[in-house]
Each structure stands twice: as structure tokens, then as C-alpha cells.
Write a structure and sequence with these properties.
Length: about 450
């Protein structure tokens, strides 16, 4: 886990996730746990000056809108055999007891955006690519809306166009002859459609441009049917100080309150290094949306937020790490997630995870493990050895125990954290935890 307080960013509550540059938040509350809210987001590389450098996706969750968890990388271009780059906006859907990531990347063979599909047994992933949605061309910025009768609909669009269609039950294709172009119904539409339902009406919100001029503002239209026709109503987030040029977001209800999620450049001052934002959203009696004014107090009204990055050892390559000579197992009880990593048979066997941050920070590293005997270990953060060569031993634990390995320095961008034992040892690694100490 990676923990941060808002002393890190200088704001009271917004941006909500200060330790990483992320954008395009898609918000959901899943039926199996209505106490938890989930965000599925794109990821900006620190220091970049182009959106072509977007490479992977992250998932965040909260149970109180103050304390958040970042589950690390959940899918990257490296995991998608048909894609080359441009990992732009995503959405997610719960369907047939599975969690699906609906994403867009550029296809190698054609150079156009495809709407990809990836699956996981758990909402936090990581997700496994299973192809792309058939029947969708130039499928940028996909979003899925599931109606009250369980019918799924897909919306997508970019470059001033927007489309919608019914999805097949397995989400793998659009239903024949249901595709409609919505462009002419949506004043100023540029990209990023999102649909939610309020009092039996369908609201399509989107980033738009006034007379084609940047920066983007958040517009919306209303319909009596999921595929329209839609009637343009107005803007619900106008231009604001510190915005990123682009904007993109979602509207979701959580514990009886409606929330607008979007992004800004409040931390970086750079439109290519964006940060996640959230403010409460309210409706007028006639169903129109009141203006959302970006506010540093945010959802917690000034109470500092915390964020935890939780890096499960068994997730391996899909989460940006690696298992070398080791393997995931689940026979020993008491682990978190889907299991743990074991099989440290020779010295160079290891488990590696990936922590991504937006700037250099000092942090404290912990690992949850189970060791039946004393273990002498090598622990690397980047190129820095933390333990092992000085003879430091981890004492046997008599079950699962969280071990404090001391302070580390994380660099802006990717940080590989590796654990390996010196000798054949019956040790099991559950997760890695990093607590921010620069406060």
C-alpha cells in the first residue's frame, strides 16, 4: 500500500488522488458491495508533453470518500497483442459475475482506435485482454451504460463525433442495426460521452468545445430513451482556473449523493500531467443540473484525504511486475487478494511489483509475509539494496506478519520493488506496502 495525505499536494481535498497523474475517471458502485465506490482511470507519465505516452490504466476505490486505495497498474499496452500505444479513456462494467474493462488503444494493423475488452474476477483487476468490441470503428473514449432491464449500451466518440449502440449480452459486439450517430444532437461535442439515469431520464454528458475553441467544458443532453434522440441542455462544468485543456469525467450516485468526477492540472500546471477531481453534483427541480464549481474542499469539505497503493504480490506481469522462478499459490489461508507468491528455491528467485508516483518521495516499505524459518532476504527498490547483504534476517513469523523494512526513496515514474531470499526458504509473500513519510 502507498499512503499519502494532502500535505503532499497543498490542497484540502481536490485533487482526490495526489500521488499519481491520472485522468478520465469512470465511477461505479458495484452490486456486490454498495458501500464501496470505484474509479477506473487512464494514467499520465510524469514529465510527458504528449498524450501518446499514455501506456496503462489504474483502479482506485474508497468506502468513505476520504481514504482511497490505488491497486497499481491493472492493464497496459504490453498486455494487449493488437495495440501499439495511446491508452486513452476507459470504463468498466459488471456482467455475468465478471468485471470487464472497456478501454481504447490504437490498433497496430490499422492505426485507428479500437474499443478493447478485458476481464477480471475482481473489480480491482488486474484485467486480461480478450479482444475488442466488434462493429465499432474509431472506438475512442468508450463508456457503457446498463439500463434497469439489464440491457447494455455502448457510447464512444472523439474528434467531434459521438455514437451509441446496443451491446450484445457478452459485450463482444454491438447489436446489428442499433448503431446511431448522436453528433448533431450534442452541441459542441468533441469526445468522452458518459450516460447516467436520473428520474427515468437519460443524461448524456461529454467534453465539448464552444465554437471549436479550447479548453473543453462539460456539457450534457437529456433523452427519454438510451439511444436518443437527445435534447441539448447546457454545461455543468465551465472553464475554471487550473484546468488541463482537456476535460473528461463521469457522474455517479454514491450513498444517496450524486458526484461529478473529472480531471484538472492543479498539481502539475501541465495539461499532459492531469489529476483526478470530484465535487458533489445537484439537480434543479426541473431535472437540469446545477453548475459544478471546482472546489479545493471537494467531497470531504476540507478534511485531508489519504491514498493507499495496494500491490498484491501474486499479480505479476499484468500489474507491471514479475515472478522469476516463483509462482502464485493459494493453499495457505489468511492471504489477501487471490493468493500469495512462494517457491523461492534458489537465491535469484524473486517477486517484483511496480509502484508508480508523480514525483520523488520518501516512504516506508513494509511487506506482509509468512516465514516458517528465519530468512535472509534481498530487497531492491530500483537499484537500491535495502536488506540482505548486511546479514539482516527476517525472523520466522508463525503465520502472516507485516515486516517493516525501513525508509526508501521513490522516484517520479516507475519504481520496481523486488524481494528474493538468499537460500531455499519456505517463505510466502502476500503484498507490498509503502507509507509516505514526506509530510
Amino acid at each position: 500500500m502507498l499512503f499519502f495525505s494532502n500535505a503532499y499536494n497543498g490542497y484540502s481535498q481536490n485533487p482526490i488522488i495526489p500521488h499519481i497523474y491520472a485522468a478520465d475517471p469512470s465511477a461505479h458502485v458495484w452490486p456486490k458491495d454498495t458501500n464501496k465506490l470505484w474509479l477506473y482511470t487512464s494514467h499520465d507519465v510524469p514529465g510527458t508533453n504528449h498524450h501518446a505516452t499514455m501506456f496503462d490504466y489504474h483502479v482506485f476505490s474508497t468506502s468513505d470518500l476520504v481514504n482511497w486505495t490505488d491497486y497499481g497498474r491493472v492493464l497496459s499496452v504490453d498486455d494487449v497483442d493488437w495495440a501499439i500505444t495511446w491508452a486513452w479513456a476507459i470504463d468498466a462494467v459488471y456482467r455475468n459475475e465478471k468485471y470487464y474493462l472497456i478501454f481504447c488503444m490504437m490498433e497496430k494493423a490499422t492505426g485507428i482506435f479500437r474499443t478493447g475488452l478485458a476481464v477480471s474476477d475482481v473489480p480491482q483487476g488486474p484485467f486480461t485482454n480478450i479482444g475488442f468490441v466488434q462493429g465499432v470503428d474509431n472506438g475512442q473514449d468508450p463508456a457503457v451504460f446498463v439500463d434497469d432491464d439489464n440491457t447494455p449500451y455502448l457510447y464512444w466518440g472523439g474528434g467531434g463525433h459521438c455514437y451509441g449502440a446496443r451491446l450484445s449480452d457478452d459485450l463482444k459486439s454491438i447489436v446489428h442495426k442499433t448503431k446511431v450517430e448522436l453528433t448533431q444532437q450534442l452541441l459542441g461535442i468533441f469526445e468522452g460521452p458518459w450516460v447516467h439515469k436520473y428520474k427515468s431520464k437519460y443524461y448524456l454528458s461529454y467534453p465539448g468545445l464552444h465554437n471549436g475553441e479550447w479548453p473543453e467544458e462539460m456539457y450534457y443532453a437529456i433523452s427519454n430513451k438510451p439511444l436518443g434522440p437527445f435534447k441539448y441542455v447546457g454545461k455543468y462544468i465551465q472553464k475554471f482556473k487550473g484546468q488541463a485543456g482537456s476535460n473528461h469525467g463521469s457522474i455517479a450516485q454514491y450513498k444517496g449523493q450524486w458526484i461529478a468526477f473529472y480531471h484538472s492540472a492543479w498539481l502539475s500546471g501541465n495539461g499532459y500531467n492531469r489529476s483526478l477531481m470530484a465535487d458533489y453534483l445537484f439537480y434543479n427541480p426541473n431535472g437540469t443540473i446545477k453548475q459544478v464549481i471546482p472546489d479545493s474542499a471537494g467531497l470531504s469539505k476540507g478534511k485531508p484525504t489519504n491514498c493507499i497503493i495496494f500491490l498484491e504480490a501474486e499479480n505479476g506481469k499484468p500489474a507491471g511486475g514479475r515472478l522469476e522462478g516463483t509462482q502464485g499459490e493459494s493453499s495457505f489461508p489468511g492471504y489477501s487478494g487471490k493468493g500469495y507468491v512462494t517457491g523461492f528455491d534458489v537465491r535469484h528467485d524473486y517477486v517484483e511489483v511496480l509502484a508508480q508516483v508523480s514525483k520523488d518521495i520518501k516512504a516506508n516499505l513494509k511487506i506482509r509475509l509468512s516465514a516458517e524459518d528465519d530468512v535472509t532476504a534481498d530487497v531492491l527498490v530500483g537499484v537500491t539494496m535495502l536488506a540482505g547483504w548486511d546479514g539482516t534476517k527476517i525472523k520466522k513469523t508463525n503465520g502472516w506478519k507485516e515486516i517493516n523494512l525501513g525508509d526508501v526513496q521513490l522516484k517520479a515514474g516507475d519504481n520496481k520493488i523486488r524481494f528474493s531470499s538468499h537460500t531455499n526458504a519456505n517463505v510466502k509473500i502476500d503484498y507490498f506496502k509503502i507509507e509516505h513519510v514526506d509530510k
